[in-house]
Amino acid sequence: MDDQTATTAAPHRVSVPAKVGYGFGAIGGQIFRDTPALILPIYMITVLGIPAWMAGLAILIPKAWIIFCDPLVGAWSDRRSRSWGRAPFLLAGGILSGFTFVLMFSAPDFESPWASAIYMTFSFALASTAYSLFSVPYLSVAAEMSDDPAERTRILAIRVMFLAVGVAVGAGYALPVAQYFGAGWTGFNRMGTLYGAVCMVAMLVTFFTVRRTKMVPSDEPRGASGKEDLRALWANKPFVTLATAYFIALTAQGMTYTVFGLFFVYVMKDPSQLALVNIFAALSVLVGQPVTVWLNRYLSKKTLFAVGIIGWAALCVSWAFAGPQEAAWINAHTGIPVSETVLLALRGFLWGMFNSVYLLMALSLLTDTIAYDRDQSGISRSGLFSGVFSALEKVAFALGPAVCGLLLSAGGFIGTKSGDATPQSAAAITTLILCFCIYPAVIKLASLLIFWHYKERL
């Protein structure tokens, strides 16, 4: 597509209410993504009595389906982008996501862990499919709200700020909320009902916003056409490089999400500290996004992406030193009177900051690669590209739990149905620390070996 045509067809600027309404859906989307990633392993292992390795597979199998589901949804929304628009997909996805979220945390009390694992596999697969109807068109819309790369970055910055709220609610409060509502199955079920309703409301706000927002027109919007679109995906080398690096980075993040709660239960021995860490992580995003947008005036998106990855990995390793002994060591060697609470808040703030930097740059670069394809071909394939990108994201967040589940089982980690913290061996605790602090940091840094080849020429 010719740049002048795009500029004439749609203004670079998007109104603030449209940006806010679009970004608001990230609250529901992040709750839907983070809560199962963080809570389902705890729910399956400590409430349903599913072995760790089996719980990992119960998450991985539905995510494997998403490899096909997300691109199909993206291509479908491309084919209907002119006749329907993408708003109907957001409507259906928002409603179904809310109901299926509740279903995940309503597992019957089966005697066999196999039966419980099968239920969780099917309910999570159904929920993942419902979420695809929302998440793929939601990501596609970001590339179509403006033809100006800088404006798209600002749109996505607001989205990431709302995403931080979803992180705080989903990752930070899901476990405390479940404990507040009651012990064991009852608490998780009530938490699931509440969070399902929040997801639905947040996603519907985005639906109403997108329905009345003008998008960048394309010369020939259409959906998947088999080999031609596969060739277009592969020919877009910036997209291939970005998607591969992002997949590796998110696999590492998926590992930390899997054992985040378990780390605070068995290593920190205080799961209530999760809320503190995630609140400060969310606050850091509110500060970090405007700063990142400002830095992007002077530093390339590629550079900022790398800075975010390196910072995240460093903070990840630092968790190996967390605990009461850390504050005592600092007091003894530096004379600085610092408390464990302050260190947890600082670590959460910096971890969230670096995470938000590379996340914003990844999403902004994605819209650049989509715009690049649109400019080259004149065809709207944002749904297809977003679907593939979204599928890789979800598979990465499933591969992480599967890997951690196998490693924890190999390390002797024991599951239970009591809902309490079952005593674990020293080897199991060491494996847990490695899965949370060391392995993810190494994998995260490895993503830069791929990303180094990204050519920011769009």
UniProtKB/TrEMBL annotation:
The keyword Ribosomal protein is assigned to this record: no
Protein's UniProt keywords contain Transmembrane helix: yes
UniProt superkingdom: Bacteria
Record GO terms (molecular function): symporter activity
Gene Ontology annotations for the cellular component aspect, listed alphabetically: plasma membrane
Keywords for the protein's UniProt record, in alphabetical order: Membrane, Transmembrane, Transmembrane helix
Transmembrane segment boundaries: 42-66, 87-105, 117-139, 160-181, 193-210, 239-268, 274-296, 303-322, 342-366, 395-414, 426-452
Single GO BP term: carbohydrate transport
Pfam families for the chain: MFS_2
Family of this protein: Belongs to the sodium:galactoside symporter (TC 2.A.2) family.
Protein name as it appears in the record: GPH family glycoside/pentoside/hexuronide:cation symporter
